[in-house]
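User: Hi! I'm a student and our assignment asks us to look at how structure tokens line up with a sequence. Could you show me two examples?

Assistant: Happy to help. In each example below, the sequence comes first and the structure tokens follow. Example one:
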Amino acid sequence: MNAIAFTVNGAAREVEAEAHETLLEVLRERLHLIGPKEACGVGECGSCLVLVDGAAVNACLMLAEDAAGRVVETAEGLGGEGLSTVQEAFVAAGAVQCGFCTPGMVVAATALLRANPRPTAAEAVAALDGVLCRCGTYPRVLHAVRLAAGEGGP
């Protein structure tokens, strides 16, 4: 086991992890953060998306030890004590159904809007392309991104 010190959702954390453990395993099993989900395990579905130093990363593909000294944000930490602007927009747009993909969608949208506060529709589609939704809420998710960007509209 190796000690890994990093910042998670604004708090300094130190955990023990095996060399083969992924960031996703550590977040869920050691820190009990349930936003990032294990689904495909190969970085294809986006259910495990987290922000690492501000960039959207598939936590199932990143070794936990590679997060040492870095800043990790999960969907749970984006709004601090309340909901973030993106999370509020998802609620307002009804951009959730079963909710399984929602944390990944919120993380992807947050990364997009931090980098580009006024994305085009094509940029929003491209940023969310890596997160699969089996319920098909994509139109509502894109509406939520527009709401979070201050654009409103249907």
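Example two works the same way, sequence first and then tokens:
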Amino acid sequence: MKILKKHRNLLIGVSIGDGYINKNGYIDIWHSPKQKELVDYKYNLLKPFCKIKPYTIMRGGFPSYGFRTQSFPFIKLLRRILYKKQGKTLSRQILNRLGVREIAIWWMDDGSMSKKINKNTGNLRAAVFTLCTCMSKSQNQIIINWFKEKYDIKFGQRKMKNSYALICGTKEGRKLSKLLNPYIISSMKYKILIE
């Protein structure tokens, strides 16, 4: 099967978040059963590359709901590009392949938003948006520069346990939310700011 450019970009998008490319060239997508809508959304996008519908299995003593793609040479190549000794690595060339839909998939996997509400008025005081990339400071800087140049969204970064995460406040988060909103499924809308 020939993989078109739009499908290659989609396969990249699902692989940089919670998708895992194993050594045999399959992409594994597994989530908690509570995230069934997200799994089904990804499956419907990747259906041409799958033989089996999503199902539930026990993983580490807990139920997981998900699926696996078929193996393709492109996915094997993608594994070599994304996976280095230090973990997943994103180059500028890979980031340039991401459209807004792929960024939204990444955000639904690894993004979060926390809000502070004014107790008296019930209005939003502030929001913090975090993208847990689990990458190094220098690796995150590549992503920060890309977001600023491509979408005029300014992220900073903060130290997590053994890595760094991208972070932005209310103003930049509003821009991010407006960009991603059309591609965020209903059960994941809590990860963006809708006003």
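Here is something you could point out in your write-up. The chain has two domains: 5-85, 106-191.
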